[in-house]
Predict the 3D structure of the following.
Amino acid sequence: SSDVIAIPSTAGGGVQEKTIEAIGYGVPVVATDVAVRGIQPCPSHVEVVSTPREFAAACCWRQGFDPLHAQAEACAWNGVRRLQYTNAIDKLLAIATHRTCVHHGPR
């Protein structure tokens, strides 16, 4: 078990799976803006910081959190994200299926 999950990412591309996984644990998360790109808004148990000084201060401060509230919020956040991704995938599959099934007449 962890008091705080620190994600100090400063480079990289795309959504970071480790950030999504960390948020889902329902414990305090301190992350850089790079670490949370593409997954905002974040629940309140996630603090996004910009500087090393802010990062260190947030890690220390976040050790005094309410775990029940954070875990409940993490479950709700996970549910919303899962629904959003499922809906997006369903739409893309419908578009792809429609394109492959459309008859364009004799060639």
Remarks:
- The CA atoms of residues 24 and 30 lie 13 Å apart.
- Strands lie at 5-7, 29-32, 46-49.
